[in-house]
């Protein structure tokens, strides 16, 4: 690898606070995803010499012709033995500007489940294609899943530009084709970067081999992509996680509602409504262990105190009287099924977890199964198997306090749990409630 | 109002908020949580987060130390002091006690890393804990990089890496049958450097061995081990004085020190930011056994 590096994270974080960007990577092994991640870690000095030495030793022992950077992320014994990546792996690196969390999702087996998992918390998704092959079915599937999970920013990396002679024409053809496809998907922000992960072109610094490319290097983009506006600061949603009531002689009559702000801004004096009861009150204080704060906004974990004594418990939600989620037991949702043993079936009963609220649900109907390659809707489908996606109608035992997923990823998403095995078997994105 | 810089939080605040959320989820949903407290920096940070998550109430669960008997005295002293300050209940799962009862047998090399697992599992069963907070981080080691924040353990305390529950958004699935349990890792997304920045920001005191000091050591397999009652020099190994500090704190018979002049938290941060060796790679004899050493121990129920 080249020795071109950027400075490691500054020792003094207080000099300029970094923010946090979570991104998911998608692509198959052949697209050079592991090489790209290895390159990002290496060039930001986040790869340690003992990790590299271990990978080199294993590579040599296996008779690999080059240091196989995939071994960095293939952490499980079975993965190294079989040469495949099984699970989402999380990687960390930082530059002076930002801290990055990579959810590295494998391309081949059970990829939908893993990709959906990785994308669920991502601010940005990075899709790789091989410049020689252009867009493949998988690239379109990745793009579709990113749009389904409402990942706000998408980056297409056209990799292995060195193998197509750094051709602007090849790059532009792929970029145009992908842009046209993404337009159908409602992708809010798309950037396309020509790179060579192996040689480091357009990773940290602009490539001299592609003077025709006028955009930023990949890292430059990752460091500067504007994510602050992605958060919903309009709709106040505060799912109550836990009620703090000290059993103490020094602190008496304290009752605080602990939770993480899902969206909106809360401050003392605001008139609020509590769901599902519908009672209204005012915020007396927004507190943390370090003292009261003037305002709370995502992703802060705080404790809210109200001026009135009303009965509030875990699973309730604090919002504004004139801007509330729907209180509903009938839910229309897109479901990604994640269980290999049993399919989702109409009539099936499951546990569901939505914000801090738990309920049971019955599948009332399956409208269609979506072919994620053609986006064709199969309305004759009777079930959803592992990695299949479809639109269902659910009836829940207790009302959910629900927003559309496209408006709010926290109050719009839920997981389905098999009550017999306790396994998480599905991910749901609310399309419509009520 | 423009107040908190256009509604942005620093990465440390974001990590703190996530960890607090995780801890509150556990207390809200699980019956009998416990926090694994070794006196190491990660468990110390976890304890601070627990204080913050439930303030002004007290931390609503006990802490447990799996005591191999091979302790650094500075760490034990710190543990007891911290527990007393916070008014916590401390449970000690003692390896020496388990040895004398015959529950476990000393391994041939004298290392107690492997035998602490049955001692831990025994205590979990005895106290019927259903959630165990651990300070493990995903940046530490590559098997850990794939572990969930809520990590399911079967009735034998085993982790099955190929059969993990998908974990989406911030929806953690802690459901389990009696006898099964969940290991919870609130620091999953923290790095070693984040932990140190947080220690500095929060002014959290640490056991003195984390800062540079003079110590009598020997060099073995390229690592510096303190000579003490648990770790004897072999023939040909010449003890010498060196300026060292510990990057991790574990069993005193298999945790090595690193050469360092970093005697303040600021200097440690500088050192950690510049270092090119992982903390476990630099200091833990127990991870060197094989490529999959950590995964194998975790499968058996190690934390």
Q: Which strand-content bin applies to the residues of chain B?
A: 5-15%
Spatial strand order of the main sheet of chain B = 3-2-1-4-6-5
Spans of chain B of at least 5 consecutive residues whose pLDDT stays below 50 are none
What percent of residues of chain A are in strands? 25-35%
Mean pLDDT of chain A: 89
SSE sequence of chain B, one letter per element: HEHEHEHHEEEHEEEEHHH
Based on the coordinates given, report the CATH architecture of the largest domain in chain B: 3-Layer(aba) Sandwich
Number of domains of chain B: 2
Shape of chain A: globular
Helix content of chain B: 25-40%
Identify the biggest protein-protein contact and residues per side: A-B, 85 and 74 residues
Biggest sheet overview of chain B? 6 strands, mixed
CATH superfamily (homologous) name of the largest domain in chain B: HUPs
Question: What structural category do the secondary elements of chain A indicate?
Answer: alpha+beta
Keywords (chain B): ATP-binding, Nucleotide-binding, Nucleotidyltransferase, Transferase
Domain Phosphoadenosine phosphosulphate reductase (chain B): 33-256
EC number (chain B): 2.7.7.4
Family (chain B): Belongs to the PAPS reductase family. CysD subfamily.
């Amino acid at each position: 690898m080249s020795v071109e590096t950027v400075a490691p994270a500054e020792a003094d974080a207080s000099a300029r606070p970094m923010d946090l960007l979570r991104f998911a990577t998608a692509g198959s092994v052949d697209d050079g995803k592991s090489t790209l991640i290895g390159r990002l870690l290496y060039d930001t000095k986040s790869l340690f010499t003992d990790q590299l030495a271990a990978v080199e030793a294993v590579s040599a022992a296996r008779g690999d012709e080059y240091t196989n950077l995939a071994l960095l992320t293939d952490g499980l014994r079975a993965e190294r033995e079989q040469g495949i990546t099984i699970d989402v792996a999380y990687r960390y690196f930082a530059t002076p500007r930002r801290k990055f969390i990579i959810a590295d999702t494998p391309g081949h087996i059970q990829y939908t489940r893993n990709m959906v998992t990785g994308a669920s918390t991502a601010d940005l998704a990075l899709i790789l294609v091989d410049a020689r092959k252009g867009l493949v079915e998988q690239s379109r599937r990745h793009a579709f899943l990113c749009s389904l999970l409402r990942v706000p920013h998408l980056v297409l990396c056209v990799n292995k530009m060195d193998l197509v002679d750094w051709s602007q024409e090849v790059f532009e053809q792929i970029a145009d084709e992908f842009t046209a496809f993404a337009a159908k998907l409602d992708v809010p922000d798309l950037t396309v970067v020509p790179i060579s992960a192996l040689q480091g072109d357009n990773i940290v610094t602009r490539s001299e081999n592609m003077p025709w490319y006028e955009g930023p290097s990949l890292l430059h983009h990752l460091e500067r992509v504007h994510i602050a506006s992605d958060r919903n600061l309009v709709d106040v949603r505060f799912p109550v996680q836990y009620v703090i009531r000290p059993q103490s002689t020094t602190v008496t009559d304290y009752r605080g509602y602990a939770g993480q702000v899902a969206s909106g801004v809360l401050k003392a004096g605001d008139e609020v409504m509590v769901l599902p009861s519908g009672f209204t009150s005012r915020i007396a204080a927004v507190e943390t262990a370090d003292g009261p704060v003037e305002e709370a906004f995502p992703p802060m974990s705080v404790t809210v105190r109200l001026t009135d004594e009303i009965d509030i418990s875990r699973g309730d939600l604090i919002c504004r009287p004139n801007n509330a989620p729907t209180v509903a037991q009938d839910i229309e949702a897109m479901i990604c099924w994640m269980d290999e043993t049993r399919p989702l079936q109409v009539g099936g009963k499951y546990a569901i977890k939505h914000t801090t609220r738990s309920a049971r649900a019955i599948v009332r109907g399956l409208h269609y199964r979506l072919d994620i390659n053609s986006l064709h809707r199969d309305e004759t489908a009777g079930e959803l198997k592992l990695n299949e996606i479809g639109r269902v109608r659910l009836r829940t035992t207790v009302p959910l306090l629900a927003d559309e997923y496209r408006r709010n990823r926290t109050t719009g998403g839920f997981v389905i749990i098999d009550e017999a095995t306790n396994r998480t078997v599905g991910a749901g994105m609310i399309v419509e409630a009520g | 109002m423009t107040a908190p810089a256009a509604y942005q939080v620093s990465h440390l605040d974001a990590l703190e908020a996530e960890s607090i959320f995780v801890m509150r989820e556990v207390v809200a949903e699980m019956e009998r949580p416990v926090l694994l407290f070794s006196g190491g920096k990660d468990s110390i940070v976890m304890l601070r987060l627990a204080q913050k998550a439930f303030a002004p109430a007290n931390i609503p669960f006990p802490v447990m130390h799996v005591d191999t008997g091979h302790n650094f005295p500075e760490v034990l002293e710190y543990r007891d002091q911290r527990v007393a300050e916070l008014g916590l209940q401390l449970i000690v799962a003692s390896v020496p006690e388990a040895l004398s009862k015959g529950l476990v047998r000393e391994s041939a090399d004298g290392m107690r890393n492997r035998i602490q697992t049955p001692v831990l599992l025994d205590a979990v069963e005895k106290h019927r804990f259903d959630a165990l907070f651990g300070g493990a981080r995903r940046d530490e080691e590559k098997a850990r990089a794939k572990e969930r924040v809520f990590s399911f353990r079967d009735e034998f305390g085993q982790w099955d890496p190929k059969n993990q529950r998908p974990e989406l958004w911030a929806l953690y699935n802690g459901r389990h049958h009696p006898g099964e349990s969940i290991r919870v890792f609130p620091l999953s997304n923290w790095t070693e450097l984040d932990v140190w920045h947080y220690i500095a920001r929060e002014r959290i005191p640490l056991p003195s061995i984390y800062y540079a000091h003079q110590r009598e050591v020997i060099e073995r397999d390229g690592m510096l081990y303190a000579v003490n009652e648990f770790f004897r020099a072999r023939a040909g190994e010449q003890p010498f004085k060196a300026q060292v500090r510990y990057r991790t704190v574990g069993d005193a018979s298999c945790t090595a020190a690193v050469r360092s002049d970093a005697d303040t938290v600021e200097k440690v941060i500088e050192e950690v930011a510049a270092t090119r060796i992982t903390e476990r790679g630099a200091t833990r004899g127990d991870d060197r056994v094989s490529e999959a050493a950590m995964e194998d121990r975790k499968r058996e129920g190690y934390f």
